[in-house]
Design a protein that fits this description.
The chain has a domain of 151 residues: 2-Layer Sandwich (D-amino Acid Aminotransferase, Chain A, domain 1), CATH 3.30.470. Helix content is 32%, strand content 25%. It contains eight helices and 15 strands.
Length: 295
């Protein structure tokens, strides 16, 4: 059980992180966050799905740039973790340690969310001019790079312009992040669309290893992306999704964002788990079987 593991060296909204010296062990829990709040309920199989989808993309992207991924094989872990094999199998990833770059690299291929809200007010997204007449879920002529700050747990990320990112990181590094992010998005979006999923937007994170920009954290998952079904897509309306937008929508309808986050109804928890599983099966092309069942 997760509670029986030693206390992690650090913890994100979803992942518990163990420092192994030259490497890190990332353990994706079944926790879910929305609007920068960690919700009190877990989503069955979510951590394993995030890890397995990330592994899939890391292996696909390793020819584009270095990644921090090493293995998801629990037998490669230090002996002190092997007593927790059943829990760690499928949801743990051994990675190279990197110096994180303090930015979230968001690429938008479609107009929705906070980008749509800003566009309605200004006709732009953080200084990027967009054509007139776009509506909810409009496909953009070209994907756009709209970074944000990387906030601590409990704080809110803040969208910033590319010019602000250059001031923060330096022009050369900022330009590398933009080029890598758009290249990765295009590769993922093309692949996913052939399998019936529109990647409306996604978030990448990068770090430095030996001075080289390296892809880290998770990668093109239902937590870090908006996944829409290609079948039935129509601009001008809210799209059904294979991601946590379902949870966000329930929270917006049932909570004023004040105080502690509420418990999710059983049917919301179950439906969210089904959506994550569906995303995995469409992208990876195989039926999702929890690792514990195959050990």
């Amino acid at each position: 059980m997760a509670s029986e593991l030693n206390r992690p060296d650090s913890q994100g909204k979803v992942r518990d992180i163990y420092d192994l010296g030259e490497e890190l062990l990332l353990v994706a829990s079944d926790r879910i966050s929305a609007f920068d709040y960690i919700l009190p309920d877990e989503i069955p199989h979510k951590g394993e799905i995030l890890t397995r989808i990330s592994k899939f993309w890391f292996e696909m992207f390793e020819h584009v740039l270095p990644t921090h991924y090493i293995t998801t094989d629990v037998d490669a872990l230090p002996n002190k973790f092997l007593g927790y094999r059943d829990y760690l199998a499928g949801r743990s990833m051994l990675v190279r340690k990197a110096e994180p770059i303090a930015a979230e690299c968001i690429v938008r291929g479609y107009l929705t969310g906070s980008g749509k809200k800003e566009y309605d007010q200004t006709g732009t997204i953080k200084g990027i001019e967009l054509p007139e007449g776009l509506v909810e879920a409009s496909k953009l002529d070209e994907p756009i790079f709209t970074p944000s700050t990387k906030a601590a747990i409990g704080d809110h990320d803040e969208n910033i312009s590319f010019a602000e990112l250059k001031k923060k990181l330096g022009s050369d590094l900022a330009e590398q992040l933009r080029q890598y992010s758009i290249s990765l998005y295009n590769k993922a979006a093309h692949y996913a669309e052939e399998r019936g999923i529109i990647i409306a937007d996604t978030k990448f994170e990068f770090g430095l290893i030996d001075g080289h920009v390296t892809l880290i954290d998770e990668c093109v998952t239902p937590d870090s992306s908006r996944f829409w079904p290609l079948e039935g897509y129509e601009a001008g309306k809210t799209q059904p999704s294979f991601d946590k937008q379902y949870v966000r929508d329930w929270l917006k309808a049932n909570w004023n964002m004040q105080g502690d986050a509420p418990h999710l109804p059983k049917e919301v928890i179950e439906e969210t788990s089904k959506k994550y599983i569906q995303a995995y099966e469409l992208l990876v092309g195989e039926k999702f079987v929890p690792m514990k069942e195959s050990l």
